[in-house]
Amino acid sequence: MSVLVIDVGTSGVRGAVVRPDASVEHIHHIPVLPDTPFPGLVEFDGTAIATAVQEVAARCLADGGPVAAVGIANQRASTLVWDRATGEPVGPGLGWQDLRTVGTCLELQGQGIRVAPNASATKLAAILDLADPDRTRAERGELAFGTIDTWVAWILSGGDLHVTDASNAGVTGLVHGDGDGWSANLLAALRIPEAVLPEIIDSSGVVGAARTLTGSPPIAGMAGDQQASLIGQSCTAAGQAKATFGTGGMLDQCLGTTRPQQAVRGPAGTIPIIAWRRSGTITWGIEAIMLSAGNCVEWLRDDLGIIEDAADSATVAARCADTGDVWFVPALLGLGTPVWDFGARGTFTGITRGSGRPEMVRAVLEGVAHRGADLLESAEADSGLPIHALRVDGGMTSNDVFTQALADACGRPIEISPVLEATTLGAAFLAGMAVGTWADEDDVAEAWTPRAVIEPTQTTTERASARERWLAARSRAQGAVPELSGIDF
Q: Which of 107, 157, 375, 451 is the 20 to 30 Å CA partner of 67?
C-alpha cells in the first residue's frame, strides 16, 4: 500500500510516491519562490502553492498508480488567511522568515508573553489587522487561518477539512505548553478569535478524503518538515537524533512521551517541540537551531566566486589536509543554539599569507560541522540523553569533506540518510501507520537503512583541542552588532 506525499518547502512543492519498502519514486517538483518586497519581509502566494500542489499530486498519481493514503509535510509557521466561502486568500501569506512583527514580539515581552517573530502568532495578527481590523469577519467564522499543512489539506479536500496536526500547531506560538489546545491568553493578547483557527488533530490518523485527487485517497499523515525528517530517519526512541543541513541547520532529538522540562528554551538553548501525535499520545522532542549552514557554501559560490558550484566545495577543500589553523564561524545571520546572538556575524580567524583557497573553503565546511557539534552537545545537555550516533539529511550531506568533518567534530558516527530529504519518508511513515502500511513506530525504526556511516578519525585529544579552538573563534564572532545582540525572543 503506497503513500502519496506532498511536501511544501520554502522554495517549492515536491510530490513523491513512497512504496511499502520505503523506496521513494516518481518525484515531481514545481518551484514556488517566496517574494521579498523589502529587507526582512518574506511573502508567498497561497494560490500558486495550491496550483502546484494539485499539479504535482496529479503527476505522481499518473506515474505511480493508486495510493492508500496521502501524507503532508511542510515548511513550518508560514501563515495564510483565506475566505471560507471562496477559498481565496485575503492577501499574501507571511513566510516563516518574515520579521515584520519583531516590534510586536518585543511589546508582548513587556506583558510577560514570549513569542518569537518566526512563529505564526504575530503573523496571523498582522494579517488580520489588514484584512479584518475589527475582527468581525473572523469572529463570524468567515475567515480561516492555516499554516501550510492546513492549506494543503483544505485544497486537497475541496474545502472540507480545516485542520492542523499537533507538530505544526506546536510551533505557531498559540498552543498551551502541554500541547493541549489553543491558549486563550495568547489569543486574547493578539485579538485572534478562536473561530478562525483550525482543529488540532493527530499527526498520524485518517482525517478525511483528498477528494480533488483521483480515487479520493484519505489524508492520513501531517507534520512540520523537521518533525517529518525526525521520524523519516526512524528516530522513534528516546535519545535518537537527526540533523538536517540545508540552507540552515536543525538538530532534533526524540524524547519519547516525556515532556521537556523547559517551557520556552532550555539552559543550553534548545527549544521544546511536539514531534508527532498518534492515537492522542504526544511524542516530544527538542530542537537546536543553526541559522547558517548551506547558505555559507552559497556565499562562497555566488558572492565570493571561489567555487563553481556546491559540489566544487568538496573538491577544493580536499586539496589541503587541514585548514592551517584557519577557523570560520558561520554566523551570516547570527548564531542560534546555544548562545542565541542575533548580533553575531560571520568570522574568519587565523588567516596568514599561507592561507589559500583550499584552506578557506575547508574552513567554511569545518565551521558548519563545528556548529553541528554545538547543536548536538546542547541537545544532550538539555535532554540529559546521550546521542550515540547522529543521523543526517539535507543537501550538505552529499559533501564527503563536510560529513567527515562533522563526524570528527561530534566525536561519534554520522549515519547518512538514504534519501537527501527525509521529510518525504517521515510524512509517508505517519500516513502509512494510519492505514497499515507500517504497523507502528517500531516498524518504522526497522526501516532505517543509512546510505553510509562515517566514523570519526580524530583522537579524543585531537577533538578536544579542535573544539577548544573552535569555541575561541565563536566567541570572537559574538556581539558584532551590539544592538541586535541585546534582542532575545
A: 451
CATH of the domain at 107: 3.30.420.40
Which tens digit of pLDDT belongs to each residue from 145-164?
999 999 999 999 999 999 99
pTM value is 0.96
- Domain presence at residue 445: no
Non-local CB neighbours of 404 within 8 Å, separated by 6+ positions: 454, 457
Based on the fold, state whether residues 472 and 397 are members of the same structural domain.
Answer: yes
pLDDT per residue over 201-219, tens digit each? 999 999 999 999 999 999 9
Contact 435, 1 (CB under 8 A): yes
- Nearest alpha carbon to residue 39 among 93, 82, 120, 97: 97
Pairing of strands 281-290, 80-83: unpaired
Are both 40 and 72 inside the same structural domain?
yes
What does each C-alpha distance from 285 to 30, 197, 258, 276, 413 come to in angstroms? 31, 24, 9, 9, 21
453 found inside a domain: no
Distances (CA, A) of 214 to 34, 54, 137, 186: 29, 11, 34, 40
Residue 218 lies in domain? 3-225
